[in-house]
Amino acid sequence: MVARCQLLAVHRRQPFDDARRQHTATLPPPVTPPRLRQLLATAFELQRCPPLGAAEACANRFSVMADANSEGEAPRCVGCGRRVKTLFVQYSPGNIRLMKCDNCKAVADPYIECEFMIILIDLILHKTRAYRHLLFNKLHIGSSLDKGILYQSILVHIVLDAFRISVSEGNKADRNSSRSMLSTIFICSKVLGNSLLGNVVFMAILLLGLRYILKLSFHIMRYREVLLAVIISSYFKLFLLTMMVWEFPSSAIFIVEIFVLSSNVVALRVMTQFPKAHCVGVCLVAHAAKHLTERWLLRTP
């Protein structure tokens, strides 16, 4: 009798157990702690976005960070030179927020909001912050070096040096103004040859100094980056073109060359992070060898 009652109770409880299993199967899975943290982080990011156009702002924010992380070489802080994930966050067109460096806790690149003239003034004043902005964050030297840019910069550098040589030698030859076409072509080809050979000597001495004096690790891509930075920092040679419009004394050429030398020192120091005395020595020897080569070639008949 007892066994019969127990069997009857089991049959009566079975429908309730089946209903409970079906209800449990329809419930969502419990939220695990990692999933909970992810949901809280998403809610926090949505709260930090502006109220108007929140979806577009957050999408822009995450796309900027993804672009910075996808680059081969991240931008750098202009203050300490350390790499940062991104320089700014753009919420909408014209609405950006500058990011801070994790190392120095300062704004990574305040030159983003500055006009070109302010950057140019700081470059003339030889501020390392302006050079880091130009070389790393504007031209992106170190991320992907285009050989075409390097070759074009070298060509422009050689042409400007040829113009400098022609101006300095033209002041001495003003008395003999009557020249034939053949002699003019010969003088132009000689000036271009002198400029080309002088720049070859300059680049060779510079690369040798990087290798044996500064002990820079031998990597062809690294040498190209340093060479391009030094050539770009020679932008003071563009001021020689003003001599085609206004008349300057010959001492102006010497002043421009001094500015080019000092600018090369700053660019070399920014690219290599070596002491200033070593960079001054390498640039000074390279410029001295270049000018001695040009003087020797000009005196050779």
Structural features, described:
- The protein is mostly helical.
- 65% of the residues lie in helices and 3% in strands.
- The chain contains 10 helices and 2 strands; from the N terminus they run αααββααααααα.
- The protein has a two-stranded antiparallel sheet.
- α9 (251-272) packs across α10 (276-299).
- The longest helix is centred in the middle third of the chain and has 33 residues, at 181-213.
- The radius of gyration is 33 Å and the shape is elongated.
Per-chain topology:
Elements: H1 2-26, H2 33-48, H3 54-70, E1 88-92, E2 95-98, H4 116-124, H5 128-138, H6 147-172, H7 181-213, H8 220-232, H9 251-272, H10 276-299
Helix pairs in contact: 4-5, 5-9, 6-7, 6-8, 7-10, 8-9, 9-10
